[in-house]
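Task: encode each sequence below as structure tokens.

Item 1
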Amino acid sequence: MRTELKLSSLAIMVTALIGSVHGTAQAATDPAVLEQAIAKQEVELQQLKQQLSELAAQQQQQQVQQAEYQAKTSTVVDRVDTAADKLSKFSFQSYGSAIYTSDEYFDNVQDTTPERRNRFDLERVVTEFGYQFTDVWSMEVEIEYEHGGTGTSLEYDGFDEFGEFETEVEAGGEVVVEKAELRYRPSKAFGVKFGNIHVPIGLTSMLHKPNQYLTVMRHKSEAAMIPAVWNENGIGVYGEIADFHYQAQVISGLNSEYFRTYDWTASGHQKRFEHVNGDDLAFAGRLDYGDFKKGSAVGVAYYYGNTSDNRHKSNKIDVDGTVSIVSAAGAYIEGPWILRGQYLYGTLSDSDAITQANKTTPGLKPGNFAQLGSKSQAFFVEAGIDLNHFTSVPLTVFANIDYSNPLMEVETGTATKRFENTWTSVGVNYFPIPQIVIKAEAGLHQVAVASIPDTHFFALGVGYQFSL
């Protein structure tokens, strides 16, 4: 604005100057007067040139300042765009649950009057971080905080006289990396993932968030046979073709030193050790039609691997200890109806040799080992009705049955039925908002031994899940 005013003033001055010269030339004929007028005009012209020079300098300075401002603005915009682009590639999810349980229990099988034990548990809090590096490269890390503590560690001291297992108790819970995988997926039909990956055996590996199962706690039948939310180090391929989903993996195997009567191979998961032995690898594969996470689906899975070479005291056994597991699962989610089920069947070769080796390995408590099953089986069926389809109340009622028998058969002798368990229950899921679920469940626990009375249980739980 100031520049425009100065230009207008100069224009007026120039016009006046020209008019003055023209008028003077016509009116004055005296040489002295004419000379005086010319001198005056030269002074005014000199002043005009100086003002024009100053105006040009100011214009140039304004152009420089405007260029600097545009450069700074462009830099800020670029930085904001870069930060927004990076943030758009980052993902965060979390889920967790807290539970209250009230169970009848017996000190031993001779008891006829059960006592009741009530417990509270911050069952788990899980955080999931993901980043999409490019269109084809991504990563995901999942960390689980269990029971509100930092956990225990188990170490093997090979320099002890006989080799000892040492347990260090640091707190009541665990902090566990449940997944830490890199993924390369150039197409929907094919991808590769490697690192610490979920093993696709058992529905819990896929449906482990509180809103993905109806019971208060994850299914007891699966936990009595295989590791829950099973994860191993390895590499796998996966993809989706039409409505089919497939996975195939080569992963670290189990360690038979911690196979137990009550949960078959579940305790053989090497997460308790600081280092995972990889002398025995395993294969895991799965094929599903449909998507269990989104609704209706059917699927089969298979696991195969030796376990003896992963033992720290491998000199105590000279057999393979091969684990083979087959699973079949199905889900029907349509309208208000919810139905899910799974059957697991497994075999363990050389179960007697493993039992004997574990009995005589120092530090493996408890020292009094029962049999290990050469065959094991487990199943569950849960059925629910979402009443929100009929009323305004977001409530789902359900019934559930879990069954496990880790001693379906033994290599020699007769299998005890002490660890053949059945849990039947009914309950409700209430969703005050879609991200939160409040659960209640009551049921009956039965052991397939006539001298052990049936017991009752009751559980309350609250869970959440969200994503950014």
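Item 2
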Amino acid sequence: MVGTSLESFDFYLFAYFSAFFVGPLFFDPLGEFGATSAAFLTIALAFVVRPVGAVIFGYMGDRLGRRATLLWTVAIMGVATGLIGILPTYAQAGWLGAVLLILLRIVQGLSLGGEWGGSILIATENSGPVKRAFYAAVPQLGSPVGSILSATVFIALTAVLPAEEIAEWGWRIPFLLAIPLLLVSLYLRWSITETPVFERVLAEGRRDRVPFLTMFAKRPGAMAIAIGAALLGIGSYSLMNTYTVNYGVEQLGFSFQDLLVATTIGGLLQLVTIPLFGAWASRVGSANVVVWGALGTLLITFPMYFLLQFATFPILVATMLVGGILPTMAWAALGGLMNDLFPDRFRYSALSFAYALAATISGFVPYLTFELGVATGFAWWHPGVILAAMSAITLVSAWFASRRAVEPELATDPATATANA
């Protein structure tokens, strides 16, 4: 959980940073509209390459082990994030800074492609079947923790420095913080042991030669279900933490600091709700919790965005709380749902790729919502269309997941290993 938090902190830094600083600092010649679009596309870029990272690190996770792979992913993310903090801006070096920024975003995306699946498996493969859903929810705390840390850094930055100094040099500080955090994360991950499930796979000689191909050959239906089930949990973060920040300031008149405070309050609440939803999933099943989260989000989507247009701080906080709790149900139980869909010998590859592909789609959420806003004159309901679509897809996928038999933790029996193919 701590390792996932630090990696999420690195990644979310750029989400907050991009809403206001990426465009002017690196894409200024494109104009206000073009720079904003380019900033959101740099977010999407890291998501686009995540499936590639999932294939690479999924192979490593299923062949070399969960622990070794997670050491690589966090090291790559930390170094790439720190390097963003020393990039030259357009005013300093022309387009060089933008090119290097794009390259580092690609590296970040590759790293994150292998992070989530390994974190879930470190938790679930060290637990018994009764507590598996709860253990799978614990790494999910990394996302709100990372969001809270990154938002707190920017809140402190805006409180201490004027906007001119932040734009000039202050924006570099949060990215440079990734280096000491990287050392902490490497120490923590070095101290963990390999999971007993992978050790059993290794001892029995059941490692798959090409797990990426096997997962599609053996579990094509499960792959489709996993991708759809992950869409709301990931996409709602992109919508709330990136697009809504920009939309709230540019169109609704909120201050940047108010939005960061509201987002942080929502993240703090998730520190309580995620473990609670994980415990609930242990009793009723992970897929059922995702179903209820998706259904609830679908029902409150348009009322929530209707109220947001009145632009009062209490309504903003309430929106972030309600809009955070219900999608969080789908997020908290996602790891358990996906773990239950796949056997041990290609589980790392399957979880990583399904999650990464859903994240790739979600990475375009800020850009697509922005384009829809432009096309509709920023009508109050335009973000609701995107959130409702994601909720509906996750609802249907999770319902199908609830109808499937749970995979055994150790698929040592060939008959068991190929069941439900």
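Check on item 2: The first helix runs from residue 2 to 26. The mean pLDDT is 85.
End of task.
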